[in-house]
Specification:
Layout (H helix, E strand, L loop, with lengths): L2 H17 L62 E2 L5 E13 L17 E13 L4 E8 L7 E8 L3 E18 L10 E2 L16 H13 L4 E19 L2 E18 L8 E19 L3 E14 L3 E5 L13 E5 L4 E14 L5 E14 L40 E17 L2 E14 L6 E2 L4 E2 L26 E16 L2 E15 L5 E13 L5 E14 L35 E2 L6 E15 L2 E14 L3 E21 L2 E19 L5 H4 L24 E20 L4 E19 L11 H4 L2 E19 L4 E15 L10 E3 L2 E3 L7 E13 L1
Parallel strand pairs: 7-12, 24-27
Antiparallel strand pairs: 1-2, 2-3, 2-35, 3-4, 4-5, 5-6, 6-8, 8-9, 9-10, 10-11, 11-14, 12-13, 14-15, 15-16, 16-17, 17-20, 18-19, 20-21, 21-22, 22-23, 23-25, 25-26, 26-27, 27-28, 28-29, 29-30, 30-31, 31-32, 32-35, 33-34
C-alpha cells in the first residue's frame, strides 16, 4: 500500500473519532502501534546513542539490579535535542536503505507475519517535539512504510492534562504461497469453475476418475496463488484529566481483515477457498477517580463484528448424484455478524482504622448477541431419490427460508460477575486476604430444526444428505443446547514476613461450578497454594511456589443430551434397527474438563550473583495432572520445563547473554471402538437391552475393541548473544536455535479396534514423529559517518526444517480420489538476508 494511502487512512480514523458520539473499546496498545522487534527493526535501534555511565548499571557502586537481583544493562544516553526560538526541543530519527539476498523468499512459513522484499525500504522513523515550559509534546513513529506490515502512530498532548493518540498498522497472515485453487472468484462468496476440457459443475463425466484426471490437468495449468489474510487496524484514543482526581478515557478502533484461506466442501469435495472480509469496531469509554483513600473505575465497551460476505457457494467438479438429480455444488454459511457489550464497575477503599485494611469490589455485566439471517438447509433444486421414509426426494421443499422454523438466529448469552475482596494487616509483617467471586452465564439461544412446509424435524446436511431428517425411527440432534452455568470461588490467604526480605505465603481456595446440560451437573475443586520468596541472601534470590488441587463432582451421566434429540419426541418409535440410538457414548468415558483430577504444580526460580558483573538464573516448573478414569484422559499428564539463563557485562561497552530451555510433556488417552450394530453385540431384540458399559454382556463396547494413545512432546531452545561497542562502531550478534519432536504412539486390544483391520501391519504402533527445527543468526554493525548519519549493515541467516505426517504424500495442487487439496502444507526453507541502511538522527 502506498504510504499516502496509509496517511489518508490515519486521517479518516481521526475524523471518525471526532465525529463519533459513541464511546469506543480499544486497549492502549491498539491506539499506539507496537514497534516490531525483528532484525530490521531492532528495539532500541542499534547504537541509537552511547551508553550512559550514570544510568542504572553494574558499574555503579553498589551495582544496580532489579528487585530479583538481575543486572540492569546500561541505558543509552538521551539524544541532544535541536532547540527552536519558540522553546520547542526536537528529536528525530529515520532509517532507510535496501534489502538484498533472499528477501524475495516466497515460503509461506517464512512470510507468515511479515512482508519482506528486495529493494528500497523505509524501515523506521520517529520524531518527538517537547515544550518543557508548557509540558506539551508531539510524537510520531512509523515503519515498514508501504509494506503489508507497516505501522504509524501519532501522539499529541500535555503532560498531566490530556493525551490524544492515533495509529494505523497492518499485519499479514500468509497461509500458503503455492495454492492452486481451480475456481474463479477466489476471495468472493461465489466460486465458479472455468471453461476447461472435461471440467463442469456436477462432473462432466459419469466416471469420477475421469473427472479427477481433468481436474488434475486444470491444476497443472493453474499458477500458484497466495492465500492469506491482511489485518489493518486504525485507532484513536483520548485521555483527559478532569481535575480533582478524575480522568476520562475514550477510544475507537476499527480492524479490517481481508483475504482468503483454505476451507472445506461438501460430499468429499476437498478444499475450497473461504473469502475473508471482516470489520470489527471496538469502542470504549471510561471514567476513573483516585485519591488518598479511594479508587473508582467505570468502563463501558462494545465490540461490533461485521462480515461483508455471509455465505460461500461453489461449483463441484465431481459427480454426486441423488437418483437422477446431479448435485452441482454446495453452500456454507460463514461467520455471522455479532456484538458484545460489557460494563464494569470497580471500587477500592483503604480502611486504615481496620487493621490497615483495604476493600475491593468489582461488578461486571456482559451481553453477547447474534441475530444473523439464517440460510436454508440446501441450495439443491429438483427431485432426487427418496431417503428412507423421512425424505421424499423433493429438494425444493428444503431450499428456501420457508423450510426454517425461524428467520433469524436470535442467539444471546449474558454474563454476570461479582468479585469482593478484603485485605487486613492485623500484626506487623502479617497480611490476611479473602476473596469471594461469583460468575454466571445465561444462554438464551433457542433453535429447533423444524420444516413448517413438510412438518418434519431435522435438516439436510452437505446439501445432499437427508439422513438428518426425522423419520420417526432415527435419532437426530434437532434442538440447540443452551450450555450455561455458574461458578463460585472463595479464597482465604495471606503473607507473613518471616525476616527482612523473606516472605512466606499461603492460600486456600474452594471452587464450586454448576453446569447446565453437561455430563456432570456440579464439580468442586479445592486448591492449596504455598509460596516462599527470599531476597535476604548476599548473592542469591529464591522464589518457591507449590500448588495442589483436587477436583471431584456429582454423578456422571454419559448422555445428558437426550432432550435435544428426536428420541425424546413422542413420535419416536423404538425398533430393532435403532437400538443403539440411546447409547450416546461409552459409559466409563470421562471428559477431561469434568473428570476427577488431582493436580500438583511446583515452581522454582533461583537468581545467583557470583560477582558484580554476572548474573545466573535457573527456573524449574513441574505440573502433573492425575486422572483416575479408565477412559478419556488417563494416568498422569505431565508438563516439565527447565530454563537456564546467564548475563555477563564485563565492561560498559560489552554484554554477553545466553539461555537454554528444555520442555517435556506427556499425555495418555484411552477409549473403545463400538461394534456399530446390535446384532454384533448379541442384543438384537425388544425391549432394548444393549449396553454401553465397557465389556458388559450385550455391550457395543467389547474388551477387544479397546485402544490407548500416548503423546509426548520434547522441545528445546538455545540462544547466545554478544554486544560490543568499538568506540563509535557498534556490533550485535545473536544466535537462536529451537527444536521439537512429538511422538504419538498407540496400542489396541485387537486389530478389530482399527477402522480398517486389514491395514494393521501398516498402522503398526504409532505415527511418524512430528519434528521442527529452526535456527537463526543475526548480525548487525553500525558505523557512524558523522554526528547525524550512520551506516547500518545487517545479516540474517535462517533455516527451518519441518516434518509432519499430516502432509505426507501430498503435492501442491493434488487430487486424491474426488478430493482436491490446495497445497502440500508447510515447507522447509533457507534464507540469507542482507540489509544496507542509512540512519539519520536529528
Amino acid at each position: 500500500m502506498p504510504i499516502r494511502d496509509a496517511i489518508l487512512r490515519l486521517g479518516c480514523v481521526a475524523a471518525g473519532a471526532c465525529c463519533a458520539s459513541t464511546p469506543a473499546l480499544a486497549q492502549s496498545s491498539a491506539a499506539w502501534p507496537g514497534v516490531a522487534a525483528d532484525p530490521m527493526n531492532p528495539v532500541p535501534v542499534i547504537g541509537a546513542g552511547d551508553r550512559d555511565p550514570a544510568g542504572l548499571s553494574p558499574y555503579r557502586l553498589p551495582a544496580s539490579r532489579t528487585p530479583s537481583g538481575q543486572l540492569y544493562e546500561p541505558p543509552y544516553l538521551l539524544r541532544e535535542p535541536q532547540r527552536t526560538a519558540s522553546g520547542w526541543e526536537l528529536y528525530g530519527f529515520a532509517e532507510a536503505g535496501v534489502l538484498l539476498g533472499d528477501a524475495h523468499q516466497r515460503n509461506a512459513l517464512f512470510r507468515r507475519y511479515r512482508d519482506i522484499d528486495k529493494g528500497f525500504s523505509l524501515q523506521r522513523f520517529d520524531a518527538q517535539a517537547l515544550k518543557p515550559d508548557q509540558a506539551r509534546f508531539i510524537e510520531i513513529v512509523g515503519g515498514s512504510a508501504g509494506r503489508r506490515d507497516q505501522f504509524y502512530g501519532l501522539k499529541v498532548g500535555r503532560y498531566n492534562d490530556y493525551r490524544i493518540s492515533l495509529s494505523f498498522n497492518e499485519t499479514p497472515h500468509i497461509y500458503s504461497t503455492s495454492a492452486r485453487p481451480i475456481w474463479q472468484g477466489v476471495g468472493t462468496g461465489t466460486l465458479t469453475l472455468p471453461l476447461a476440457s472435461g471440467v463442469a459443475a456436477g462432473g462432466a463425466s459419469t466416471n469420477n476418475a475421469t473427472n479427477a484426471a481433468a481436474v488434475q490437468r486444470l491444476i497443472q495449468q493453474t499458477a500458484d496463488t497466495e492465500l492469506g489474510v491482511t489485518r489493518r487496524t486504525g485507532a484513536a484514543r483520548i485521555e483527559l484529566r478532569l481535575g480533582e482526581g478524575w480522568t476520562f478515557l475514550s477510544s475507537y478502533a476499527i480492524e479490517r481483515r481481508q483475504g482468503a484461506r483454505a476451507f472445506g466442501g461438501n460430499e468429499g469435495n476437498g478444499e475450497t477457498v473461504e473469502p475473508v472480509d471482516y470489520r470489527t469496531h471496538d469502542l470504549h469509554a471510561g471514567l476513573q477517580f483516585a485519591d488518598d483513600t479511594s479508587h473508582f473505575n467505570l468502563a463501558l465497551s462494545a465490540s461490533l463484528f461485521r462480515n461483508s460476505i455471509d455465505s460461500l457457494r461453489w461449483e463441484n467438479p465431481f459427480q454426486h448424484p441423488v437418483g437422477a438429480l446431479r448435485i452441482l455444488g454446495g453452500r456454507a454459511d460463514l461467520v455471522p455478524d455479532n456484538e458484545a457489550y460489557n460494563a464494569k464497575l470497580e471500587y477500592a477503599r483503604a480502611l486504615p482504622a481496620l487493621w490497615r485494611g483495604r476493600f475491593t469490589a468489582t461488578v461486571e455485566l456482559g451481553a453477547m448477541r447474534q441475530n444473523e439471517r439464517l440460510i436454508p438447509p440446501t441450495v439443491t433444486s429438483g427431485i432426487g431419490a427418496p431417503f428412507g421414509t423421512g425424505f421424499n426426494g423433493n429438494f425444493d421443499l428444503w431450499n428456501t427460508t420457508a423450510a426454517l422454523s425461524q428467520a433469524h438466529a436470535d442467539a444471546r448469552i449474558d454474563t454476570r460477575l461479582v468479585d469482593l475482596g478484603l485485605s487486613l494487616a492485623p500484626a506487623r509483617g502479617l497480611t490476611v486476604r479473602s476473596t469471594l467471586r461469583h460468575r454466571e452465564t445465561r444462554n438464551g439461544t433457542r433453535y429447533t430444526a423444524f420444516n413448517p412446509q413438510t412438518e418434519q424435524y431435522g435438516y439436510i446436511i452437505q446439501d445432499t444428505n437427508a439422513s438428518r431428517i426425522f423419520s420417526n425411527t432415527n435419532n437426530v440432534h434437532y434442538r440447540s443446547i443452551p450450555f450455561a452455568g455458574a461458578q463460585d470461588n472463595l479464597k482465604l490467604g495471606g503473607e507473613y514476613q518471616v525476616r527482612r526480605r523473606a516472605v512466606l505465603s499461603a492460600e486456600l481456595e474452594r471452587e464450586n461450578t454448576r453446569r447446565d446440560h453437561r455430563e456432570r451437573e456440579r464439580t468442586w475443586e479445592d486448591r492449596l497454594r504455598l509460596g516462599y520468596t527470599d531476597r535476604g541472601f548476599e548473592s542469591l534470590t529464591v522464589r518457591l511456589s507449590y500448588e495442589q488441587a483436587n477436583r471431584r463432582g456429582s454423578d456422571y451421566l454419559s448422555n445428558p443430551y437426550r432432550a435435544f434429540y428426536t428420541e425424546s419426541l413422542p413420535a419416536y418409535t423404538v425398533t430393532t434397527a435403532n437400538l443403539l440410538d440411546r447409547l450416546h457414548n461409552l459409559e466409563e468415558l470421562r471428559k477431561f474438563d469434568l473428570a476427577d483430577r488431582r493436580q500438583q504444580v511446583l515452581r522454582v526460580r533461583l537468581n545467583h550473583l557470583p560477582r558484580a558483573d554476572v548474573d545466573l538464573g535457573v527456573t524449574l516448573q513441574s505440573k502433573t495432572n492425575k486422572y483416575p478414569a479408565d477412559f478419556g484422559r488417563t494416568g498422569v499428564q505431565a508438563q516439565h520445563a527447565l530454563n537456564l539463563d546467564a548475563g555477563y557485562l564485563p565492561t560498559p561497552v560489552t554484554a554477553v547473554n545466553a539461555y537454554y530451555s528444555r520442555q517435556w510433556s506427556k499425555m495418555q488417552q484411552s477409549g473403545a471402538a463400538d461394534l456399530g450394530s446390535a446384532g454384533a453385540a448379541g442384543c438384537l431384540g425388544l425391549p432394548p437391552r444393549c449396553s454401553n458399559a465397557f465389556g458388559a454382556p450385550g455391550s457395543i463396547y467389547p474388551a477387544e475393541l479397546a485402544w490407548s494413545a500416548a503423546s509426548q512432546d520434547r522441545s528445546s531452545s538455545f540462544g547466545l548473544g554478544l554486544r560490543h561497542d568499538f568506540g563509535r562502531p557498534k556490533l550485535e550478534l545473536q544466535y537462536t536455535q529451537v527444536s521439537s519432536r512429538s511422538p504419538l504412539g498407540y496400542a489396541y486390544a485387537s486389530v478389530n479396534a482399527l477402522q480398517s483391520p486389514a491395514f494393521a501391519a501398516q498402522a503398526a504402533d504409532g505415527f511418524a514423529d512430528i519434528t521442527y527445527a529452526w535456527r537463526a543468526l543475526d548480525a548487525g554493525l553500525r558505523l557512524p559517518m558523522s554526528r547525524t548519519i550512520a551506516l547500518r549493515l545487517f545479516y540474517r541467516h535462517e533455516i527451518v526444517r519441518i516434518s509432519d505426517w499430516h502432509y505426507s504424500g501430498l503435492d501442491p495442487g493434488i487430487v486424491v480420489g474426488n478430493r482436491v487439496y490446495l497445497d502440500a502444507g508447510p515447507a522447509n526453507y533457507r534464507v540469507d538476508l542482507f540489509g544496507v541502511l542509512l540512519q539519520f538522527t536529528l
